[in-house]
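fwd from M.: "can u put these together and see what the complex looks like"

so here's what she sent:
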Amino acid sequence: MPRYSRLMLAVAAIGMLMATSATAQEYPTKPITLILPWPAGGSTDISMRAIADSASKILGQPIAIDNKAGGGGTVGPATMAAAAKPDGYTIAQIPITVFRLPLMQEVSWDPAKDFSYIVHLTGYTFGVTTSAEGPFKTWQDVIDFAKKNPGKVTYATPGAGTSLHIGMEQIAALAGIKLTQVPFKGGAETNAAVLGQHTMLQADSTGWRPLVDAGKLRLLMVWTGARSPNYPDVPTLKELGYSMVYDSPFGIAGPKGMDPKIVAKLHDAFKKAIEDPAVIATLAKYDMVPNYKNTEDYKKFVVEVTASERKVIESLGLAKKTN
Amino acid sequence: METILNVAHGFGVALLPVNLLYCFIGVFIGTLVGVLPGIGPISAMSLLLPVTLSGTPESGIIMMAGIYYGSMYGGSTTSILVNIPGEAASVVTCIDGHEMAKQGRAGPALGISAFGSFIAGTFALIALMLVAPKLASVAIAFGPAEYFSLMVLGLVVLTFLTQGSMAKALLMACIGVVLGLVGLDSITAMPRLTFGRVELIDGIGLVPVVMGLFGIAEVLLNTEQAIKRDVINTKITHLLPNKADWKASAGPVSRGTILGFFLGILPGGGAVVASFASYALEKRLSKTPERFGKGAIEGVAGPESANNAAAGGAFIPLMTLGIPPNVVMALLLGAFVIHGLQPGPLMITQNPGLFWGIVASMYIGNLMLLVLNLPMIGMWVQLLKLPYNVLFPLIILFTIIGVYCSSNNVFDVYVMIAFGVIGYFMRKLGYEPAPLVLAFVLGPMLENNLRKSLILSQGDLMTFVQRPISAACLALAVVLLVGPLLPALRKKREMVALDEGA
Amino acid sequence: MSNDANVKFRLSNSELWGGLIGLALGGFVIWSGVRLKLGTINDPGSGYVLFYTGILICLFALTIIVSAVTEGGPTLASRWENTRWSKPLLIIACLTLFSFALDTFGFLLSAIPLMVLLLRVIDPVRWSLTIPLSIMSPLGMWWVLKHLLGIQLPSGVFEIG
């Protein structure tokens, strides 16, 4: 023990650089925390748990999931960017809101600077549902009702500024109607809200699936490019006349300043994880497919997404007021 | 008839040797993590989730469920013995449970909480078997407005259960709400009251707050009194509840069970509200409310039953709707999905073996827990025979480790020490910590649901009165608040208030 | 100091102090609420609930102050009468020292001295018990957590533990 500690002191004295490269070789030596900015039990939570489980076998250390929900999926990454050490033991799922929210309001993080992007993993299937006991049978019914009662149609989203919120506002603008968003914290909550008819509609990723299958909820549309094989009768956004596709792709990142070697190690492990048939099967339950991008492509993608998001946000008049 | 067939089938699954083994491992780990404050079922289940993947879905889920309700059994142990609540739901057990321990009645307190838990757990399972599908609608009947009113009711109930001045209790509750709101706003992601400290962005942890306000503050109070340590050492007369204890506890256990089961169905703070509400109810119904806070066994029996029945009720929204009412249930949902099953309205019909097997295994698990826990009471009571000058450093060490384990963060140890000091001065000046803790838990939910319901109603405050469930909660809250102002009741309260600082 | 158990409008009235601290806290919360923006009633902002809770805090604190002045309250000194007030103070000091040491020296190197201090300073336990207890209990808990539950306690700059 004393010999070992003297060695560590010497290493520390020579310089942080050496010390970090020494850790990279041994990394990971303790459990890794993966922050999920959604409450447990939603589609992201369960699919990321499956991915993390597979990746942990490759890394040889458990990956503990830490659900830090709120702020449309930004509270988790923001907490990590502010508080975590870039030692590879704290990483977070990065939903698209991390890039979008800074365009809409003052935030504590800068998506271009505060993260070490690791790997891009997959995207969602989004859909709009309503209670099966409710009056809406098709999307047209919603439009007709909303035209007569502007602002009275409420929809539950997993948070303000999420793709669901932005997408619904875009649809509303194109259809010439006014909808009212109610931000919840994730799929488990929006399911309960629409099921209990507290909101008229729910816009969320496929966490609604068991309820739709059981006939408790009615699926009005999906936001994918093509119709979902599970719901061949449900129209896409394009078919309804809105030329958009929303899939909110996501990946994982750590705090800024991570050692490239650790990034590479995590990248490899998570890449293998999304190739694991068991993971693909879990993803398929939520109509999700792997969408792999390596570290470099992911960084480029962040720049592209930020640019395209800026356009949408500005066209909707949701952009942050710059003085 | 069909139900009986199903139950028989379920026991067939649960009694398979491999499932019995998994069930035992689950409840055993659950008891362990329940006794250690800070290390809750969540961390244990997250760590063990991968282990369950190797077996059949039944055995994996039986084990995970075992950890959950097993931890509910163990949770009260440290509350009673050393005044350290491991989680919010056992805060209320501290009030009378620890007082009983000081009077040498730790055995009956631990005993009644084990038996109460068993009775409540069993009842909740029978109810789960019989009425689960019918009660699914209860879980979704609660929208933002209903939750807001329920939280208001919860906060009012709490002021009622304090022993001292109403104004002080309400002040503590408000401070609790404010403390609960520290951190990033869950709707707009704005940092609030973080004073630029990055550790606070995540909010203040519940575990350091309760362990500081209860555990550390209790130690500080005890050490300033030279005589007090002998109080714990008074003769321990008997280990198990006697006839009089049972007579006093029968009502509280049955009322607590029913209250807990129904509040447990609600996603959110069901179990916490249930345990506090049960305490308030028992104090209200009691002919001798002045005994509460001074070691009344009813104050242990009711909340402990409520808290375990709530654990059973919590399975209803998960099994019937696929909506997990708390983080632990969400982990179970994850376990289901990773095993290729999707809890939801179709699960009971599509997978009867699994559903009934799990329910039957929980029944067996409850029995195992009772057998496992009763002999341990003697061991726990022996612990109290340690002289206080040896015991208190161990208590402090225990809380430090528990707090660190709950978050892996040294900052939380500082928070606990700070709240220990604050708690000490609060108690010296006659401010009680229980209202603060409950408000701390309910505050964020109160705020979030208030804002959502105002968005939904477009700023119309009438929404809280127009919706029947919400109106009922608020009406009850008003009755409870105004009640003590009526002259007849006032006398009763003042009698209780005399105990302040005792 | 006065030994009167009950005083009214005096600075030694402990009830008055409790109320004043509450009032200050309430004022701060109101101010924070305003700074975080109240929003409108249709779409309440981040400071909405804080603002109103702050008002409630002030209200309750004022009630306490009023009753402290009209009905009186026990003196600060009487709250600590017949107690060994230095003992809790010593424990607080030990804990403060410990919290500074924890991050730098790690759990084992700071918990063992803490145990020695707590066992010896408050109500001295004999050395033959103090030494084994203060070494064995942190070490035992550390071992259980690290090897059975996979939880790493802080190891400090010397990486011990």
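replying to her w this: Chain C touches chain A at residues 150, 152, 157-160 (CB under 8 Å).
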